[in-house]
Amino acid sequence: MDRFDDIAAFVAVADAGSFVGAARRLGKSPPIVTRSVARLEQRLGLRLFHRTTRAVALTESGREQLDRAQQLLADLAALESSAAERRKEPGGLIKITASVVFGRLHVQPLVTEFLRRYPRIDARFELTDRVVSLVEEGIDIGVRLGSLADSRLKAIRAGRVRRAVYASPSYLAANGDPKVPADLARHTCISFTGTTTDPLRWTFGAGKARQVIAVRPRLVSNLADPLIDSAVSGFGLVCVLSYMVDHLVAAGALRPVLVEYEPPSVPIHVVRPPGPHPSATTKAFLDLAVPALRGRFSA
What we know:
Elements: H1 3-16, H2 19-26, H3 30-44, E1 49-51, E2 56-58, H4 60-88, E3 92-98, H5 100-117, E4 121-127, E5 141-145, E6 154-161, E7 163-167, H6 169-175, E8 189-192, E9 201-204, E10 211-214, E11 217-221, H7 224-232, E12 237-241, H8 246-250, E13 255-257, E14 266-272, H9 280-297
Parallel strand pairs: 3-4, 3-5, 8-11, 8-12
Antiparallel strand pairs: 1-2, 5-14, 6-14, 7-12, 7-13, 9-10
Helix pairs in contact: 1-2, 1-3, 1-4, 2-3, 5-9
């Protein structure tokens, strides 16, 4: 039994004029109510009631403390009521994080649409390629690509993207298509460090067919956009995630190669901190973002 239970017992005894009446009102046994009041008196160092075999009456100290106790219980009830209302209606501040390129291309439009739908909500949107601790940094929603390192997070699968190799039609016309991964040895390679932990080794296939190919990239960067621009200009082959270049493939500026050797697809998850019930604001964003991402990236 916590301190507020003890305060509630004190107020109930004062209102009922007896421990038995207070116990009936609280749905507890008289000994439990008696112990609650005794604990409160011990913590305060005050005697709150005069007790006789026939009656219970407030002491002077008890009368002084009763108003404060009633106000504390009223404040607690208001706090709980306010929290319940927040769970029912979206509002307040939501903090969202995503990786830089995916966030800019595919999460930012969802955040903007979300704010249009809910005028009472403000958002803080952090784009970073580091793995953010949602709990430690007070983040409500994260959009993650790849396996999840923190198994405590509540995760919803929202799609998948491919890790693939692309080149411009002009590069392929001049240099030919690589037919097998080993052909990369004679091609100009461009490596994005955000796609693989080792820009000098590209992975293909899965299981027994998995193979790691050593490459000698002429250009390496932690930013995808300049590498993709170089590939579009005809400089070489770039290994990136498909969402980064889908629009360029659709426009004919890039073409995938070695498609039959691609490694397993990369999952997309929308995650939130541990806990059984998200706030109304968090749930509203999940209800918007998850179907939108699944529609685009077919979970």
